[in-house]
Write a structure and sequence with these properties.
The complex is a heterodimer.
Chain A lengths: L2 H35 L18 H8 L1 H34 L5 H9 L6 H14 L6 H10 L2 H14 L2 H9 L4 H30 L2 H7 L6 H11 L2 H27 L2 H5 L4
Chain B lengths: L2 H22 L8 H6 L13 H7 L2 H34 L3 H9 L8 H11 L5 H8 L12 H25 L3 H9 L4 H12 L1 H16 L3 H6 L7 H11 L3 H36 L1
Helix pairs in contact in B: 1-14, 3-14, 4-5, 4-8, 4-11, 6-8, 8-11, 11-14, 13-14
Classes of the chains: A mainly alpha, B mainly alpha.
């Protein structure tokens, strides 16, 4: 190898490293910085690290009645929304993957269209009508707003899973005398269960992390953790906001880690191509 | 069986959107009666329709500036997300090193973080006492700009939030290109840039369109990111809409803005559907 080629190789390697470090700072930097804030006592610009470390923000968060109430609320809404969403969407997912019927494609696209609406505009339109339906500021209203964000997950991911199960398996079960319900619960459902689980986790998170619609419809009666963040940022000490933010991120980090493989494996991406 | 979710969408999305259109055109009856009885500065007609609410909103200078801010932030964020996620996905497709695995992990970090937290974290990162200014100071640059509460910060946060979706989509598209196709081209003497241009680029059009459309629609409809990281004014239409609805008690103006944003999104969505239908046809021929 000539000197020029070696120099070029080193240069490329250096450029690669600079780009990766920039990506690291851009993607992870803000989170690490926030993490430091949650434990910082005295910290003034331009000190690179806090002068004092403390955990007092943590006890403040747990002793503030507003904050602990919003945590409780978040853990009430998310499971309710997930279960309602599953009850509504799973049968549809099965039907979409197993039957062809007139209008199937139009219905699929119309479900998907929920994603094509700019969210805040949609919530504003919904809120206008929610007054007349007596849903403003109610538990039901918040459940509906959060439900909207889960329909696509709950339909597409299980539908893809149902489609991936060979019909011959179901037919074989039927041949040996199993009724349709038995076939579903003994053959189809167990095979699709992992995907359904993933869809439920993603729905749980979508609901748990939903802030803007809940803010519009739920305030002032139902202030969940993410909506509490809006006020926290402006009205609380920075350290308390940082602690609360970390706590709010915790379920996300844990649950996403659980379904990481499925989401990264391209399954989610495939769902975005209309078929 | 498919009825329940379709009914939910029809009742809680379709119906409100139709009602919103009627309300913005001056019709305050039926489902709009309660909101119209609460709102101020409304333009209502008993018969026919009126565009007065639209005129009122679109002649407002503050909203003009917000509208342009929204358009610019959407264009810039979308372009950067498309280009950066293309670059990352391409790198991941072609390089199989430890560094590539790190890049792959880094690019999906935002999936794990709720948007509210991300916005807040990014705000403090670029604030006047944030990391960027601190590190610049220690490197001898005293005048690093404070980006917190600026539209630049909004763009940075929108990019951050949308990168994982971009990279996953693009990667899924590029992974669909068979290895032997690339090798065959390389064997017959094509340079790497040539392979990218003539094979990978044309075979990854749909994912690119999807990333572009969904990112643009996401930015158009975002509230949390601009609300937390952006300036008071001009800011994106998301916070403006919310202000008109709640703080100013002018729901009709808020809904006019919602419809304006829908019209933008409709244009963007049309591109997405068109691209899908086109390939749908092509792949059904291939099967």
């Amino acid at each position: 190898m000539t000197m020029v080629a070696v120099a070029r190789g080193v240069g490329r390697r250096a450029l690669e490293l600079v780009l990766v470090v920039s990506l690291l700072v851009f993607m992870v930097g803000p989170i690490v910085w926030l993490g430091l804030r949650a434990f910082s006592g005295l910290w003034r610009y331009p000190q690179l690290l806090p002068k004092q470390w403390t955990v007092s923000g943590w006890s403040q968060v747990f002793h503030d009645p507003n904050l602990s109430h919003s945590m409780k609320l978040s853990f009430e809404f998310a499971p309710v929304v997930t279960v309602v969403s599953a009850a509504i969407c799973l049968p549809a997912a099965y039907a979409f993957s197993r039957y062809t019927f007139p209008g199937r494609r139009v219905l699929l696209i119309s479900l998907f269209a929920t994603n094509a609406f700019p969210k805040i505009g949609l919530y504003i339109s919904m809120a206008g009508v929610f007054y007349s339906l007596n849903l403003m500021g109610t538990f039901m209203g918040v459940v509906i707003v959060q439900l909207i964000g889960t329909v696509v997950f709950m339909t597409w991911i299980p539908a893809a899973a149902f489609s991936a199960i060979p019909r011959s398996l179901e037919e074989a079960a039927r041949d040996v005398g199993a009724g349709p319900l038995r076939v579903f619960f003994r053959v189809t459902f167990p095979l699709a269960a992992p995907a359904i689980f993933v869809a439920m986790i993603l729905s749980f998170l979508a609901s748990f992390d939903e802030a803007q619609g809940t803010f519009l419809v739920g305030v002032p009666n139902y202030i969940t953790m993410p909506t509490e963040m809006y006020t926290l940022v402006l009205n609380y000490p920075e350290q308390v906001a940082a602690v609360f933010a970390l706590l709010l991120a915790l379920p996300s980090v844990l649950l996403m880690a659980l379904v990481r493989k499925h989401v990264m494996g391209g399954k989610l991406a495939e769902g975005f191509q209309l078929r | 069986m498919v009825l329940p979710p379709v009914a939910v969408i029809a009742v809680f999305i379709g119906f409100p959107v139709v009602a919103a259109i009627a309300y913005t055109l001056g019709r305050a009856g039926g489902p709009n009666s309660v909101v119209a009885s609460l709102g101020q500065r409304q333009f209502i007609v008993q018969h026919g329709v009126t565009l007065d609410a639209y005129r009122d909103v679109l002649s407002n200078d503050t909203i003009h500036r917000d509208l342009w801010a929204t358009i610019w932030v959407t264009i810039v964020s979308t372009l950067v997300v498309v280009v950066v996620s293309w670059a990352i996905a391409l790198y991941l497709r072609l390089a199989d090193t430890r560094l590539a695995r790190i890049v792959s992990a880094l690019s999906v970090v935002p999936l794990f973080i709720p948007v509210v937290i991300a916005s807040y974290a990014i705000l403090t990162f670029y604030a006047s006492d944030g990391f960027m200014r601190t590190i610049a100071y220690h490197l001898g640059w005293n005048g690093f700009p404070t980006l917190g509460f600026t539209l630049t910060c909004v763009v940075l946060a929108e990019i951050w939030v949308n990168i994982p979706f971009g990279v996953l989509m693009m990667s899924s598209g590029l992974n669909g290109v068979p290895n032997n196709l690339i090798e065959a081209a390389r064997d017959s003497g094509a340079s790497m840039p040539r392979v990218v241009r003539s094979i990978l680029l044309p075979m990854n059009v749909i994912p690119t369109v999807i990333v572009g459309t969904f990112t643009a629609i996401y930015v158009l409809g975002s509230f949390t990111v601009p609300y937390l990281t952006g300036p008071t004014a001009p800011n994106l239409l998301g916070p403006t809409m919310s202000n008109f609805f709640s703080a100013f008690n002018q729901p009709q103006q808020a809904e006019v803005l919602a419809i304006v944003v829908f019209v933008f999104a409709l244009g963007i969505g049309a591109v997405y559907v068109w691209a899908n239908v086109r390939t749908g046809k092509r792949s059904s021929v291939a099967q």
